[in-house]
Amino acid sequence: MSNLRLQGSLTALITPMHADGKLDEKAFADFVEWQIAEGTEGLVPVGTTGESPTLSHDEHKRVVEICVETARGRVPVVAGAGSNSTSEAIDLARHAKKAGADATLVVTPYYNKPTQEGMYLHFTAIADAVDLPLIIYNIPPRSVIDMTPETMGRLAKHKNIIGVKDATANLARPLHQRITCGPDFIQLSGEDHTALALMASGGHGCISVTSNIAPRLCADMHKAWREGRIKDAMVIQDRLVPVHDALFCETSPGPVKYAASLLGRGSEFCRLPMAPIAESTRKRVEGAMRTAGLLN
Predict the structure, then answer these.
(1) In angstroms, rounded to a whole number, what is the distance separating the alpha carbons of residues 51 and 185?
(2) Which of 80, 115, 174, 264 has CA atoms 20 to 30 A from the CA of 153?
(3) 137 in helix, strand or coil?
(4) Residue 209 and residue 234: Cα distance in Å, rounded?
(5) Confidence (pTM)
(6) Is residue 234 within a helix (H) or strand (E), and if so which, with residue range?
(7) How far apart are CA 239 and CA 169, in angstroms?
(8) Does residue 10 contact residue 135 with C-beta atoms inside 8 Å?
(9) Are strands 103-107 and 78-80 parallel, antiparallel or unpaired?
(10) Where residue 4 falls among pLDDT bands split at 50, 70, 90?
């Protein structure tokens, strides 16, 4: 098991773009700096929130490089490296290691619907090929398939497979994964709403969408929980729930990129097939941000 410490609030970073759809490298580097200054404890570039499905491989790799270069070792970088092609995932993971990332985040293969054995072989092949800590990303609503705790337990025996981003929203799941994978297996919530609940079940933190626009609040919530200030953590949770709701009232990352644009953190542009968000969504996002004190 790797000694890499992943805990607290890790941000599933948006990828800022210009109005013509090209990467806004300066805005992204500035965004990474802001996240670190606000207390974010880990950075996750080119995941779903970073629009990995519509980035070219070259763009994907460039975003990882900028993130690593900007972070300069101050917080861990967990680079997205998932694909429904095992060879493609290996290529992205190899690049992440070369770029200096601290770990990779690899999603369960979408669309081609492998069996549990297929998933076991897929993740084993990646972990065998690249000597870098790997976090499994289990998100059935997007990938259709669901990795069972038993399969995850088999994979947890691999020295390079150190944890899971659990986006099942099943609050019994971390309990079963703790049994099959052991207490040292890093369990991170992939759902902002379940961050504290997962930690109460032995989890370690959250790879968050909301922390793109509320990094200080998210970091403070996790810190309060770790210090045993449960009431303080829950006060922050209550404050953020309407923000979570607003950011997922349409498919992410449309709402969160709009929210970031209100803070001057890049444009709201998302590449097709992500459509511009509805006017009702804009009003809901802005209202939730104002209520939470994120906008004056």
Answers:
(1) 27
(2) 80
(3) strand
(4) 18
(5) 0.97
(6) helix 230-247
(7) 20
(8) no
(9) parallel
(10) confident
